[in-house]
Structures are given as C-alpha cells and as structure tokens.
Amino acid sequence: MLLDANDVPTGETLSADVCIAGAGAAGITLALALRDAGLEVILLESGDFEDDANTQALYRGTMSGIDTWQLDGHRWRLFGGSTSRWAGWCRPMHPFDFERRAYIDKSGWPISYDDLVPFYERAHARVELADFIYDVDRIQAASGRPVLESPGGRLRTEVFQYSPPTRFGQKYRADLQAAENVRVYLHANVGNIDLTSNHAEVRRFECMTLQGVRFDVEARSFVLALGGVENARLLLASNAQLPDGVANSSGNVGCYFMEHPHYKGVSVWVLSRPTDLSFYKLHEIDLPQGRVRVQGVLTLAQDVLEGEGLVDFTASVSEAAIVPGDTGPIDAEQVRSLIRDRDAERVYQLYVRAEQRPFRDSRVTLRTGDKDSLGMPRVDLNWRLHPDDNRGMRRALELVGAELAAAGLGRLWTSTQGDELSWVTNPGGHHMGTARMSEDPKEGVVDKHCRCHDVENLYVAGSAVFATGAASNPTLTIVALAERLAQHLGEELR
Ligand SMILES: Cc1cc2nc3c(=O)[nH]c(=O)nc-3n(C[C@H](O)[C@H](O)[C@H](O)COP(=O)(O)OP(=O)(O)OC[C@H]3O[C@@H](n4cnc5c(N)ncnc54)[C@H](O)[C@@H]3O)c2cc1C
After folding, report:
1. Residue 123 CB: number of other CB atoms within 10 A?
2. Which CATH class is domain 1-128+166-259+359-385+429-494?
C-alpha cells in the first residue's frame, strides 16, 4: 500500500512488526523480502516519487575534508533513493575482502563471503541480473574477446556486470502498492529514535512531514536504511538523554567513513603494438540465463596486493588522444616523450577506482546550531584518506606499468609527486562505514546480523555497516545484506 504521511492525523501512533526508515535499494529490498515472510511492515520514506527541492534541501551539509561534491548533490532523497541516479555497475566483494588483512588496520568482517553468497544470488535478481557469474574465464569464454596476458602473473583481469540500471522506486512501486502487509508512507521523515528508559530498546520512531504533521511508529524491530551519511546523522542526533546519540557507546557512529576514490585518467598507457582491448569495453554477452552487459577491468593479483601491503583497486581502460597543448594534470609533454613511431594511435587512459583503508578520522559529525527545516542538526562530512592510500596507489600503478612493460605491451605514465599520486580525487557516490559491523562491540556499531550492539531491536541496513569498502561498487552488497537481514528478521519475529 502506498500512503501519504500528510494524511496521518497528528499525534497518531502506527504499529507494525517491522518499521523501516528509508526507501532506497536497502529499504525497498527489505520491505519486499519481509512482505514475502508475511510480516506487517511500515516503510517510511522522506521523499515523493519525483525529486522535490524542499525535500532534497534536507540533505544539505558541509564537507570539511576532501570537498568534491555537495552533500545534497550526490545522494537523492526520494522514493528509490540514489538508485534514481546510479550507473548500475555490479560486482560482489571478494572472499579476501571479508578476511582480516594484517596490513590493513580494522580489516575483517564478522561474516564471510560464503555467508553472503546465497543472498548475492537473490540480490542479483533484484537488480535485474541473472547469472551470478564473475569468473573471468567463464565470462571471457562467452565474450570471445581476449583477456590481457600477464606473463609474471601479477596483473589480474576482473569483470563487472551492468544492471539496466534498476531504478528501485520505479521498478518496485507497483509491487509495494499491491502488498497488503506493507504500508509505505511517503513524505515521512524519521526525526528521532526514542529509546526505552534503560536505552536497551527502541520504543518508537518519531516522524514528521514538511507540512507539519507529527506521528509515531511502534514496532517489534526497527531498521535504519537511510544511506551511509544519514544513518549516522539520525543515530547521532537522536535521544537527547544520551549525549553521544543512539547505539554509540563505542564512539564509532559516524567514524570510518569510506568512499571509493576515483582517479580519472591518472595513468596514460602507450601501447607499443596493436593489441585487442575490446574485452575492456562495455559489451554484451550471452550467459546461460540471458544476455548481459559486461566490462573487463585491470587490477593486481591478490598475492601482489598482500606482498606489497596494498588495498584493492580496479582500472578501466579508455582510448584517449593526448593532443599538443593539453593542460591539466596529464603532462602532455612527458606523455608525448613516450610515444614513438605509430604509437600515438594507441594511447589509452586508466580510470582508477580504489578501496580506501578504514580511517577513524574520516567521519560524519553533527553541526551544532545548524538545523534543517525540520529542526534536525545538519552534518559535516570530513572525508579523508589514510596517508598510506595515496602512496599505495602510486606503487600499485608502478607495478601495473612494470607488468605491462614486461609483457611487451608498452609504457605507462602516471601523474605523481614524490612517492604519492598527484591527482584530483573524485568520489563514486558510495557512502560506507559509518556504522561498521564488528564482532567486538568496542570496535563497531552493529553485529553480524546488522543489529546495533547497544540496542536490542534496532538494525542498520546499507553500506554504513561495511567494515571495509573493497574495490567493488557497493549496491549489490547492500542489497545482499538487506536480503540476509530480512531472513534474520523473518526467523526472529515469526
Ligand atoms: C551518480 C551515482 C552513481 C552511482 N553508481 C553506482 C554504481 O554504478 N554501482 C553501485 O553499486 N553503486 C552506485 N552508486 C551508489 C548507489 O546509488 C548507492 O549505493 C545506493 O543507492 C544506496 O542505497 P541505500 O538504500 O543504502 O541508500 P539511499 O539510496 O541513499 O536511500 C536512502 C533513502 O532514505 C530516505 N531518507 C533519508 N533520510 C530520511 C529520513 N530521515 N526519514 C525517512 N527517509 C529518509 C531517502 O529519501 C532515500 O530514499 C552511485 C551513486 C551515485 C550518486
């Protein structure tokens, strides 16, 4: 059922088995899976079916760290959330992403890749993809296009599959409209998490609309699915009796914010002989269950990453002419000095997207005294990279260049300064880590079931719970975790 929160009488208390805040990829997946489990669900969504300037303005805030976009310009507050804009790149995380890597502080999740596989398969269907196949040999066999050879075995090719991309708000609107046990309230902003007097459980979500309606929702379990920044904002701003906010006895709420730093054209690759790179272009292939768009990307072998103490990354390859008079970070003179004879016809740029190390100082905090039109404190996002990240990325590209040279595939020019990359860091729109998953309550905010360590019936869905960000785009994992959470809630509440 789709309803308008402005029609709820002020002062009313609604109730359900599960109350979910936020109808993005995480919230909609969860609501659909709980519908199938037969639970009564209330899904509270701030926005409407279309963009609305006043609602979007609730996302405004400041960026005191890497300042590459505005907080209301890279996430979207409407039914369907940021899937209204996402590009659809999909790939699961690797088994090693879930394991502790000794050289990455705070790495390791309390769940394994195998725990998530059945849910990745369900998630694939939600994003309108069929075969859960990411094995490069199988994709390559279906593609028929060659994968780059790496004689030293140090270069690795990986693949992304592309969702159409699924716009969750449009794709699942009719399903939610028809669901008798799911009530979706549009224009419903959760403004406070009210706890019981011992702070051990949520009593209710306090809600408001921009038109001034106020009401509460009671439930057996509550889920925050507001996105990586907003989940932290609501936890930090809620329950005035707790000075550090809700579920924050460890002090970790808002900390360890991670993105995927994007370095566009950071390296220029001058191929020294004709080479078929078409596997690294977006193309369609036939897999057993249907046609899918795929693209190859380059990275380093896992043992090289481990041996060098590097985080993971992917690099896509695109043709790019370096013309005389070029300005900007690519030093055209230096690049031209690498070009001989007919090489100029084979100049490519690498677009690198990297994992970043969990870094406590990279964080979301509240801006005291600066409130939005609903009276909620706005946030500051201090997105920062660990100093080892830039140095590591430079080293990683050095190794890629050495391997390409060893394979007789030409030369790589990378923009560097000292032992670091010299480049403008762009974001991916991936907001991770602000309510991280941990075994030890002192190290994180939620446990392996995405339940807050401090609050018995409060859960977090979305990439806020990521303990590490990996080099995969996050949405497939967000949806898989939401499917897993739905199974857990179904078993617990039935
Ligand atoms: C330009 C762009 C391109 C991207 N491309 C990719 C890609 O190719 N691959 C990939 O994996 N990811 C991509 N992403 C990231 C992807 O969009 C997000 O990972 C995903 O949408 C997050 O889903 P979510 O449900 O966790 O959060 P959101 O989509 O942020 O949903 C949160 C929901 O909560 C609602 N809400 C917020 N506050 C409140 C409140 N107080 N009360 C009630 N409701 C509230 C919002 O309106 C929203 O509907 C991209 C992002 C951007 C910006």
Report:
1. 26
2. alpha beta
